[in-house]
Specification:
It comes from Schizopora paradoxa. Keywords: Membrane, Transmembrane, Transmembrane helix. InterPro entries: DUF6533. About 75% of the residues lie in helices and about 5% in strands. A hairpin with an 8-residue loop joins strand 1 and strand 2. The chain has a two-stranded antiparallel ribbon. With about 290 residues, it is an all-alpha fold. The protein has a single domain, classed as Rhopdopsin 7-helix transmembrane proteins (Up-down Bundle), CATH 1.20.1070. It is globular. The chain is built from 8 helices and 2 strands.
């Protein structure tokens, strides 16, 4: 009876690990799909433009995601991995995800700073909480990944190894991310309400609506990830949404940059949005034909 119960538990863990593997595949598919459909805008608004802050961060935001995705796929699909290999790949993937999300947060910080009309007090506040968030996140993540136990898979051709958390440090990591994004969302919402009342134009409506939707989606995904980690602390399901969270940060942050570039390229927005962009067009060239952004 004990042997039967143990076998059932092992099968249940394997099934959970397989479902997590499917979530990785979904995340990769979503990333590739969005990259393909965004390519025309990317060529026109990013690659054909001069090098700038926005261009560098777009490339990091969009394409660094492929590196951690490749690491996670290697971890999920290579049947020859040993327990130690699983640990190294898993830790590498988690650190890459953390760095990637932090870079996306920089884009959100710059966006919020611009919306607040380049307020130095807001910038100081945002930089302070981002640095504090990153430092605490690094410490908590280091403790969490060291506590993970990797169990050999009964069917390595399906799942190479099965991880389980040794402590709840991962939950604290995502709580920190959630708190940071909650701050950003509140600042955006407050400014959007006041700006909406003062400059009630279709352009302002579209700009704030899109920005708020992007920020709200990121916050909702981070909240879902936090709940999942807490609920499935002792099963492989604890990391079922981690890669999805990373992919959504990459997609929405890069789309935010493209959206700003599109707005800058329209004649209607050339005067209204001087404080809501990453960089300005040269003054001696027309907005419609500028290549300086």
């Amino acid at each position: 009876m004990f042997a039967f119960s143990t076998a059932v538990d092992a099968f249940d863990l394997l099934l959970q690990a397989v479902n997590v593997k499917y979530s990785f595949v979904i995340a990769v598919t979503l990333l590739i799909y969005d990259t393909i459909i965004s390519l025309p805008d990317e060529i026109n608004l990013i690659w054909s433009q001069c090098w700038s802050f926005g261009k560098v961060f777009y490339i990091l935001t969009r394409y660094l995601n492929f590196l951690d995705t490749a690491t996670i796929l290697w971890y999920s699909f290579d049947p020859k991995l040993t327990i130690e290999s699983c640990r190294r790949l898993y830790e590498t993937g988690m650190w890459l995800i953390t760095i990637g999300i932090t870079i996306c947060h920089v884009v959100l910080v710059v966006r919020t700073y611009a919306i607040w009309e380049r307020s130095h007090s807001i910038l100081a506040y945002l930089i302070s909480i981002q640095i504090a968030t990153f430092v605490i996140e690094v410490f908590q993540l280091d403790q969490a990944v060291k506590s993970i136990t990797f169990t050999p898979s009964p069917v390595p051709t399906i799942v190479p190894c099965i991880p389980t958390l040794g402590n709840n440090g991962m939950f604290r990591v995502f709580c920190i991310v959630l708190g940071f994004e909650g701050n950003i969302l509140c600042l955006l919402f407050y400014k959007a309400v006041s700006q909406w009342r003062r400059d009630s134009t279709p352009l302002i409506h579209a700009l704030y609506r899109d920005g708020f939707i992007y920020f709200a989606v990121l916050f909702a995904i981070s909240l879902s990830n936090t709940v999942v980690v807490l609920k499935f602390f002792e099963s492989p399901y604890y990391y079922v949404t981690i890669q999805l969270q990373r992919v959504f940060h990459s997609i929405l942050a890069s789309r935010l940059i493209i959206k700003l570039r599109k707005v800058m390229a329209s004649k209607e927005s050339s005067l209204i949005l001087s404080n809501l962009i990453f960089e300005r067009f040269p003054e001696d060239s027309s907005v419609g034909s500028s290549k300086g952004a």
